[in-house]
Amino acid sequence: MIPPLRPGDKIAIVATARKISLPEIEAAMQAFRSWGLEVVIGNTIGASYNQFAGDDALRLQDLQQMLDDPSIKAIVCARGGYGTTRIIDQVDFTPLQQEPKWLVGFSDVTTLHCHLHTLGLESVHAIMPVLFSREGTAQAIETLRKVLFGEPVTYQAAPHAFNRTGTAQGQLVGGNLSMLHNLSGTRSDIDTRGKILFLEDLDEYLYHLDRMLVHLDRTGKLSHLAGLVVGHMSDMHDNPIPFGKDAYEIIAEHTGKYNYPICYGFPVGHEPDNLALICGRKAKLQVLPEGVVLAYAPASASFLSY
Predict the structure, then answer these.
(1) 301 vs 11, more confident
(2) How far apart are CA 228 and CA 168, in angstroms?
(3) Membrane-spanning regions, if any (predicted)?
(4) Residue 270 annotated among the catalytic residues of the structure
(5) For residue 192, pLDDT beyond 50
(6) Which CATH number belongs to the domain containing residue 85 in this structure?
(7) Where in the sequence is the domain holding 83, given as residue range(s)?
(8) Is 188 one of the annotated active-site residues of the chain?
(9) Marked catalytic residue, from 115, 117, 232, 270
(10) According to a count of CB atoms within 10 Å of the terminal CB, is the N or C end of the chain lower?
(11) What CATH number corresponds to the domain at position 299?
(12) Among 24, 122, 200, 204, which one carries the catalytic annotation?
């Protein structure tokens, strides 16, 4: 287990993908300091190489430095975009395996979550500093604080017409659908068998979404799940000749032949209500007619008993 943060601990902010300026993360720095944390700013913040936060070498060096530094107790990725896959195979995660610390982010940072899962390490899929100043994010920020400081979290979601009721138990894995598709067949590819998979995405054409789900299904990633959590599918696009289904209808089509519980509209993804999820931790998903409950197994407790 990763030790909870305590007041006085150091938390680092780095950019593994798209470039970002220091003023863009000011709200996050203020929030972290209000939690009693010391904020360490990586060399990638304010760096620029075309659309990236510095070239690959700088982004790799910045992340590696924070992984190697034992005084850094958590690393938060400033924003997503694109770029983490360009450096992931050069990162030495040995220090993290020897002394685990939290890595935080979502979207393109799904690369890190998946890679860490293959190493047996937990991480946090959560709001990133670039979004702390966005209206409506208070709950997302508070759930991140609770997870980092080891406070228990249990999430509830409203019922949805597409939900399939039931109870699932298993490690929670997943993230951005486009990244999960992109990582297929690589060293960062995750095994989803017996696990609760969660999905979210942004700014995709509906036929792209369908194509990615076909691929995931063909690779067996949808067939042996314990359960499925479908989050925000934001700003989806269609062609002049309509695809004929929206995002949730596409997912429902490709999972209709399976019998595990599924919930739709869970508050995770590219919207202000992006609740912090612990990737790799055992969880219990209850999809009931009256709504959804997602809870984590207490540390060192019998998973099946809670």
Answers:
(1) 11
(2) 9
(3) none
(4) yes
(5) yes
(6) 3.40.50.10740
(7) 10-148
(8) no
(9) 270
(10) N
(11) 3.50.30.60
(12) 200
